[in-house]
Amino acid sequence: MKFGGTSVGNVDRIRNVARRCLATQAAGHDVVVIVSAMAGETNRLLGLAHEFGEIPDAREMDALAATGEQVTSALTAMAIHQLGGQARSLLGHQVRVVTDSAFTKARIRTIDGSRITEVNKQGAIAVVAGFQGVDDAGNITTLGRGGSDTSAVAIAAAIGADVCEIFTDVDGVYTTDPNVCPLARKINKISYEEMLELASLGAKVLQIRSVEIAMKYGVPVHVRSSFSDAEGTLVTSEDKLDRDMERLVVAGVAYDKNEAKVTLREVQDTPGVVARIFGALADKNISVDMIIQNVSSGAATDVTFTVAKADLPRAKALIAEIGPAVGMKDFVVDDSIVKVSIVGVGMRSHAGIAAKMFSLLAGEGINIQAISTSEIKVSCIVAAKYTELAVRALHTGFGLDRKDVHEEPAT
Amino acid sequence: MKFGGTSVGNVDRIRNVARRCLATQAAGHDVVVIVSAMAGETNRLLGLAHEFGEIPDAREMDALAATGEQVTSALTAMAIHQLGGQARSLLGHQVRVVTDSAFTKARIRTIDGSRITEVNKQGAIAVVAGFQGVDDAGNITTLGRGGSDTSAVAIAAAIGADVCEIFTDVDGVYTTDPNVCPLARKINKISYEEMLELASLGAKVLQIRSVEIAMKYGVPVHVRSSFSDAEGTLVTSEDKLDRDMERLVVAGVAYDKNEAKVTLREVQDTPGVVARIFGALADKNISVDMIIQNVSSGAATDVTFTVAKADLPRAKALIAEIGPAVGMKDFVVDDSIVKVSIVGVGMRSHAGIAAKMFSLLAGEGINIQAISTSEIKVSCIVAAKYTELAVRALHTGFGLDRKDVHEEPAT
């Protein structure tokens, strides 16, 4: 059972978490709880750190940030005691969650589940501080923002848990963002692959790495609300989906406004030039998402690509620097774009899904600026102003709208 | 170098600590800093804990409270980095400060100094989180309030430090409380034994256990101000004092208002009765300080003793319970008393010091209600209203007044 920062945001909510853990235990389960820092605490600590420079020492950042989860784990154990239960808090170095030494973004190497199992055997609830680990030298490390999801899934894998429940402030994974599309439905079951694509495409409900680990070790992940007992969304393997494959070729529609489009005009069309441009971007750690190169009509060609908006200033500086060497005439930036995507494992066995997407967008008069596809996903770049229109058109067109609303007579 | 909560109470003060550490390093020393939680932080954490019951689980209290020092140690290391220095924070379990498992009041068993020495060898300052340790099972423990002094002295002993500097918000140990006696002087050097008596008698500048450890391992302790470069007070072995023994038989005058006096009237004067009373008090963990039994004038006698005011309610309940069995007529409590004490190793070789104390008090018309002595201390219980009068009379009478003021003509 993993509870995020909002779910442990104050003393009453921690009490609520304790109650929920005890109810699960009373139902006959061994319970391990993974907790995040109380909402606001990590930012308070980072604020203190930034008083000592823009980029404080990464090792010390981790020693500092790890206290947030340590506080919550101790308080949660106390809350369980107060309700008459047994509990023991465990920190990253006590469990042991062994990571590499990449401070502030460490990756888990091994987890020893025996200390947790031992606590459970004594009839107690193990309350594990999420987000943190320890490297081989005994230094405290953290897994980066949202790392508590990763902790939870990795610990579930290590102890062979029946399920990893991720409690959050939404009640599950939706077919698309309900704020954009009021007809969005909660998904009952979704495959790891689809969840991974949705997480990569901007759905924030689960951290990408946690889904990767769940998929690798086959951990069923149940995403559900901290504030209700309703069933949420089960993330599981494709063969366990009991989905009506006919209707649900597409599982969800995602959108991401965090990209910008860069077009280099009249670049020299000779071998090695494109490699030079993207090599230089890679050297600066600037991730390029989509690339479009038009068919050349002579000695020069236009090259278009998209990058994260956060990387745009660095990308622009780099292009300005290397542009002359590749014969570039000039370059144009467009940050009023959105990437809309459809995701679904059913695409593998259904031809024509991409074509249907293009036609649905065309039907709304939306021009497609770039396309990328994978086995279970199609993404299109369109003008940002079409975001809501495009999402709703795809959601309805692929049969994802809520039935209860959908089938009511129009009012 | 140990800095208490006030000395690291905010970001600017932490910067000041970093500056001071770097200056000491620049002067050619290997530097180890022990830090407390930022002033107010421990109380904030305890406040959170008490939301989950009056007596939260002790193990979890320690996991919680230890975060206070963890935060300060990381921030102090960052501050040193920002000023261009090298530093590494070390927690109790990283150093390893191994303690017993008496959570919230653990005692240090062993300290491995090698990790600290290693940091120093790399030219870096080791920033150790005070107050905390780890037991054999890997649980986090704390040493109790003021435990950072104990951490500092014990670590100094473990690494064979030349000196343990305790930085605090006063500039040293005084001959008596300057708030009570404006003529109090800062003591340049004081022996471990004297410091131990003064600490036991209510002087709050050093924790008793830290002085015991310093004495046991011969660690020179320099108590000084965080806010000035002035020399403070060196606590050292008796043979290193270069004191004018004639003048300074008495090193300091202490007072303690935290005791109350209990008199049991007309207790049965037969063997075993007194043992029964004090045995019962000891069983309840109530420490008795002084005991006075008057010479018996028949079958009954009065028995008087002092206890800490905090223990008084429990002591009264116990006396009421066992009183009838020892034939007690009734009992009287007086909590308007003060214990004034003189301390000095010179007493060993000077007769008549106690007599001089009694005569100084008598000269002010102060009645002595009880007396206790040790080799280097004489304590008297007097009415609380005489506190200031008694302290000043003893301070002047034993030649402790500041000369600069003392020798000025009266204005």
Fold and architecture overview:
- 2 copies of one chain form a homodimer.
- Chain A has helices spanning 11-26, 41-50, 58-82, 92-95, 114-121, 147-159, 192-200, 208-217, 273-283, 312-322, 353-363, 387-397, 403-406, and strands spanning 2-3, 32-35, 87-90, 97-99, 108-111, 125-129, 132-134, 140-142, 164-168, 189-191, 221-225, 233-236, 252-256, 259-268, 288-293, 300-308, 330-334, 337-343, 370-374, 377-383.
- An 8-stranded mixed β-sheet of chain A has the order 3-6-2-1-9-11-12-10, sandwiched between helices. A 4-stranded antiparallel β-sheet of chain A has the order 13-18-20-19. A 4-stranded antiparallel β-sheet of chain A has the order 15-16-14-17, covered by helices on one side.
- Chain A is globular.
- Chain A has 3 domains: 2-169, Carbamate kinase (3-Layer(aba) Sandwich); 261-333, 2-Layer Sandwich (Alpha-Beta Plaits), CATH 3.30.70; 337-406, VC0802-like.
- Helix content of chain A is 35%, strand content 24%.
- Chain A has 13 helices and 20 strands.
- By secondary structure, chain A is an alpha/beta fold.
- The A-B interface holds A 11, 14-15, 45, 48-49, 51-53, 56-57, 59-61, 63-64, 66-67, 70-71, 73-75, 77-79, 81-82, 88-89, 91, 93-94, 138-140 and B 11, 14-15, 45, 48-49, 51-53, 56-57, 59-61, 63-64, 66-67, 70-71, 73-75, 77-79, 81-82, 88-89, 91, 93-94, 138-140.
